[in-house]
Amino acid sequence: MTGWLATLQRKAALRAKAGLTRRLVARQPQDAVVDLAGNDYLGLSRHPAVLEAARQALADYGLGATGSRLVRGSTAAHAALEAALAQTLGCQAALVFSSGYLANLGVIRALCGPRTLLVLDAHAHASLVDACRLAGASTVVVPHASPEAVASALEPGRPAVVVTESVYSVDGDLAPLRELHQVCRLAGALLVVDDAHGLGVLGPRGSGGVVAAGLAGEPDVVVTATLSKALGAAGGVVAGPEPLIRHLIDTGRTFIYDTAPPPAVVAGALAALRIAQKASEARALLRERAGWAARRLREAGLLVSAPAAGVISVLAPDAAGAVAWAEACRQRGVAVGCFRPPSTPDGRSRLRLTINAGVAQDDFERALETIIATAPVDRAPSPPTAPETVPDRS
Asked: Any idea which of 17-26, 89-98, 230-239, 334-343 has the lowest mean pLDDT?
């Protein structure tokens, strides 16, 4: 075996020893697994109106967009979705990308100049971590959900961008957005909020965490989100002041040089957004289930995060224990997320549960009892670690 392949084999062996091997499991259509792993919070990925909108766009435009947005990839469906997202998020304008990952990479880079300081929450999603790395600007990682730490990191007179999520993707807790914005406003910094787990779930008509915090339309706030969670689709969005969107269209590499999202997916996302705005009962059910699930799991002696939206984190003793726990659940017909380093911000492994309002109540209750019944005997988690530099989420 050549040297570079042998190196990869050695690295794979080390990952396997540490319980960090990942594997792909092909999901079959209409499988019987109770899904507490996917992000389809409102159960819209199979909603008849969403599928019909996608079917019609598929018939009208074909399978793919056939080019980048600036060549042939922009359609009436893209423009309609951007207008609807801007209105929903309370921003002047919005721009759709082919993924939330690319949206974050594109906007962070666009906001950076030679002297810009990026201030990143220690629990920020890997796409935000990578965006800060690739932006080429100085980055300071601050303790999780700490406006005081952000204030201490900001330097008088230096341009800065503070980067956070609205609902943190691993533990599901809510960012102190109002306090963070106050700190940014006093220092003249921008606040970028990834609202991926808030859009469709939080705020009036599911308008997201930024709207819920009363920050919609503020000139120093930029919102990003994915369309792959509560909307059950795929793609990403950046929303904010119109000059920012103009700048991204002119200079954003992850927008300019990427093939546009397929029109069928975009049309489905627009239909899902319109349904989500009226889905107050589904949002209420999601909140009720999240709270009940956290209480039930705690009663069983598990260490559980306090859910602010649809994400619940359950600590595991170690990476191998988390893998075995998730597999035991799967064998009993329950899908759960399995998060291990380097995907976790604190070095601790956990199961991540995402509440789905489309799951039948009996199935939901059975899934929780399955998680409890298969929990490791040794439930003491490994001690956390606090990153002082840009976290390694590779």
From this structure: 17-26
Query: Long-range contacts: 47-52, Cβ < 8 Å, 24+?
Result: 47/232, 47/271, 47/272, 47/275, 49/271, 49/275, 50/232, 50/233, 50/268, 50/271, 50/272, 50/275, 51/268, 52/271
Summarize the confidence of residues 201-217 as an average pLDDT: 98
Q: Residue 192's pLDDT is what?
A: 98
Burial 115-135 (b: 16+ CB within 10 A, else e): ebbbbbbbbbbbbbbbbbbeb
Q: Whole-angstrom Cα distance, residue 193 to residue 218?
A: 12
Residue 190 phi, psi dihedral angles, 5° rounding: -90, 150
Beta-sheet pairing, 117-121 with 236-240: unpaired
Six token digits for residue 4:
């570079």
Helix (H), strand (E) at residue 94: strand 93-97
User: Which of 92, 118, 114, 115 lies closest to 105 in space, CA to CA?
Assistant: 118
User: Which residue from 175, 193, 191, 192 is spatially nearest to 183, judged by alpha carbons?
Assistant: 191
pTM: 0.93
- Alpha helices by DSSP H, listed for 90-199, are 100-110, 126-135, 147-153, 177-187
Determine the distance from the C-alpha atom of residue 331 to the mean position of all C-alpha atoms in its chain, rounded to a whole number: 27
* pLDDT at 184 > cutoff 90: yes
How high is the pLDDT of residue 21? 87
**CATH class for the region spanning 26-42+279-373:** alpha beta
Ranges in the chain annotated CATH 3.40.640.10: 48-277
What is the pLDDT at residue 386?
46
- Model confidence at 387, pLDDT cuts 50, 70, 90, reads very low
Cα separation, 394 vs 388, in Å, equals: 16
Contact 275, 44 (CB under 8 A): yes
- On the question of pLDDT at 379 being above 80, the answer is no
Give CATH for domain 48-277: 3.40.640.10
